[in-house]
């Protein structure tokens, strides 16, 4: 029996604060899995944490490469996906 495909999601800044985690393992419900739907998978695991807004303004990286268009990126398992929250400075 083949093992289920998994990804590691890394949380930074507001996403880490909201989830209380710096990283988390997810089993992909299907492969290929569109990166554009990962936010809904994360928020379903962490309801009522305000993640919809945080993830809606965040950028994504897959295996340390920034993603320009999440709609065109698919996950197959084994990837490390980082949630890059916007930051402000002064």
UniProtKB/TrEMBL annotation:
Q: Keywords assigned by UniProt?
A: Cytoplasm, Molybdenum cofactor biosynthesis, Nucleotide-binding, Phosphoprotein
Query: Where does it live in the cell?
Result: Cytoplasm
Supply one GO molecular-function term: nucleotide binding
Task: Recount the PTM note.
Answer: C-terminal thiocarboxylation occurs in 2 steps, it is first acyl-adenylated (-COAMP) via the hesA/moeB/thiF part of UBA4, then thiocarboxylated (-COSH) via the rhodanese domain of UBA4.
Residues with PTM 1-thioglycine? 90
Q: Which GO terms describe its cellular component?
A: molybdopterin adenylyltransferase complex; molybdopterin synthase complex
Please give the InterPro entries that the UniProt record associates with this protein: Beta-grasp_dom_sf (IPR012675), MOCS2A (IPR044672), MOCS2A_euk (IPR028887), Mopterin_synth/thiamin_S_b (IPR016155), ThiS/MoaD-like (IPR003749)
GO BP terms: namely: Mo-molybdopterin cofactor biosynthetic process
Pathway terms, separated by semicolons: Cofactor biosynthesis; molybdopterin biosynthesis
Q: Give the sites modified to Glycyl adenylate.
A: 90
Which superkingdom is the protein from? Eukaryota
**Pfam families membership:** ThiS
Chief site of localization: cytoplasm
Q: What does this protein do?
A: Acts as a sulfur carrier required for molybdopterin biosynthesis. Component of the molybdopterin synthase complex that catalyzes the conversion of precursor Z into molybdopterin by mediating the incorporation of 2 sulfur atoms into precursor Z to generate a dithiolene group. In the complex, serves as sulfur donor by being thiocarboxylated (-COSH) at its C-terminus by UBA4. After interaction with MOCS2B, the sulfur is then transferred to precursor Z to form molybdopterin.
The subunit field of the Swiss-Prot or TrEMBL record says:
Heterotetramer; composed of 2 small (MOCS2A) and 2 large (MOCS2B) subunits.
Entry similarity comment: Belongs to the MoaD family. MOCS2A subfamily.
State what protein this is by name.
Answer: Molybdopterin synthase sulfur carrier subunit
Species annotation: Cerrena zonata
């Amino acid at each position: 029996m083949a093992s289920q495909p998994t990804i590691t999601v890394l949380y930074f800044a507001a996403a880490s604060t909201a989830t209380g985690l710096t990283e988390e393992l997810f089993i992909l419900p299907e492969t290929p899995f569109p990166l554009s739907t990962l936010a809904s998978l994360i928020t379903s695991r962490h309801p009522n944490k305000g993640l919809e807004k945080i993830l809606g303004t965040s950028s994504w990286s897959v295996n340390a490469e920034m993603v320009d268009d999440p709609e065109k990126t698919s996950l197959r398992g084994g990837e490390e996906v980082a949630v890059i929250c916007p930051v402000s400075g002064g």
